[in-house]
What does this fold into?
Amino acid sequence: MARHILRRLLMTIPVVLGTTLIIFAAVYALPGDPVQTLAGPDRAVTPAMAEALRAHYRLDEPFLVQYGHYLAGLAQGDFGIDFNETPVSSLIAAGWPVTVRLALMTWVIQALVGVGLGVLAAVRAGRATDFAILGGSTLILAVPYFITAYVAQIVLGDRLGWFPVSGIDEGWPRSYLVPALCLALLGVPEVARLTRASVLENLHAEFVDTAVAKGAGRLRVLVGHVLRNSLIPVVSMLGLTLGTLMSGTILIEGIFNLPGLGYQAFQGIQQHNGPVVVGISTLLVLTFLLINLIVDVLYVVIDPRIRLD
Amino acid sequence: MTTAPYARPQHSGPLHPGPLQDLPGYDPGAAPLEVGGLQVEFPATRSRPRADVVSGATFRVASGRTLAVVGESGSGKSLTARAVMGLLPHGARVTDGHARLCGVDLLGLPDRQARSLRGRHIAMVFQDALAALNPVVPVGHQIAEVYRVHGCTGRREAFDRAVAMLARVGIPEPAVRAGHYPHQFSGGMRQRVMIAMALALTPRVLIADEPTTALDVTVQAQILGLLKSLKDQHGLSLVLISHDLSVVAGTADRVAVMYGGRVVEEAAADDLYARPAHPYTRALLDAVPRRGHRGRPLAALPGAPPDPARPPGGCPFRPRCSLAQADCAVPPPLETVGPGHLSACHRSQEVSAR
It folds into this structure.
């Protein structure tokens, strides 16, 4: 097990190198001159000043050298300094808790509601409940989630006033509930469908007959035998979803004005603030890889048939 | 640790008073399992006509004896067993008949009571142990579940007793193996695990549905031997379902031959092999290769078993029978044709005289 984890960790190194290189190149290739953005929109930039700024942010060096400097800093845990002289790490420290809260809350809702509905649909397969759940999930998938988000914001926040319209002034959980619910709508149908298919497959497995032949009751058969097997693919999907959620909160953070990582990255792009974009993207990539690794290890725990090494 | 002597739970001991005695119809003198006139059908659906898959299965197994139920695929032998265990596949239902466990009709019991009997007084071993064991639960826990379900013991003791059961069915290092998963066992060892699970509470009746079909011939013999010795030790009644008359030969006391959803012949094993009284049984026996018949072609039975959705009417074997005549359009009843020998054939005398 330890060897497997170590090997997986080593395998992440080329992935980190590759992804950071791509992100770095993308930001480098952004149209517009960062120096102009740095100085401000309407100010004339003297050649001397431009030169100084370029030297300060190493913008005068070749692309690969810049990238090398960035990697060297990253290896020491330094995300660099953005064009407003703020350390990117302090931006991350501010945005991280917001995004983590939002993502985790969304994830928990997705897991509970998705698995619950999926099991219900499977147990009632072919009946009205099943059709309602399948139909409802198709409907939800068909509506873009930012529309749901705006509607929820207007109805729940503004008209009814049950929840804050935007911002995080009211803290966790009130400020996060509506955004998390809207974001969860995106994942619930997927989780529910996978769970339904997986439960249906196991519901007619022979080991279910064995459990019945032992005299086990319906609930025990369902939870101890059917679910125990059905949740294997669901758990691995949920794990990967958590990784995507971390970076998938940008739009919702924008709509609800939550100052999380996505929001900051978005601002960074608009302001041509390269270090912010690169820093946050790198962090999200690292998080995603870490979660993937955890899911992989977890997979072995829940499915003993899988061998490592 | 615990390969310690295993205290066999008594059927009516004070520790786990079985619920069987309290159920309606209980008769200590009745046969452990008696199936009569059992009918199972798949009702018609849009894509498929109604099908009688079991149409009047009748047999009984005496205390401490082995009854083999023999027939080809589709003869209804497995569905009969599943109906008795309450394990009919989705859509199938019992339309008539009874299955009495010591006099208690399993088919008429409310679900809760039927459940309390399953695993405790009647248990089943399946053909494919790999599919029949839960792949993600250690085998020790799967056996222990039997004790837990029937409220016999706490978690810890249940596991210890599971280990003792593994030792009893001849699994080496049972304490270690109890923590292993089904895929870590060989086919024969897996079937031993199944048997340990089925016998955990020493049921009165064990139904073994093709228990050795998926195994190598040498392992087959071991498993059959194990079943036989456990049966003798515990005085169980064993219903051995098989399509293979040679598997049955050394094990069964009596044999019931099923064809087209009904029992066409039932007799003591020796008697059946020596003097079959149904043309189907004779055809089956003729198809078994034996010493001294070398170089001669094996007799093959032409044709295919009847489609349960379109039974031929009358004797189900009529279309394939060399002795069939006009009166075979009237279904022959299962009648006594000799001492302890039943056959459903108008020409049974003719068959046994050959």
In short: DSSP finds 13 helices and no strands in chain A. Chain A touches chain B at residues 204-207, 209-217, 220, 224-225, 228-229, 232, 302-305 (CB under 8 Å). The mean pLDDT of chain A is 85. Chain A has two domains: 2-75, 93-302.
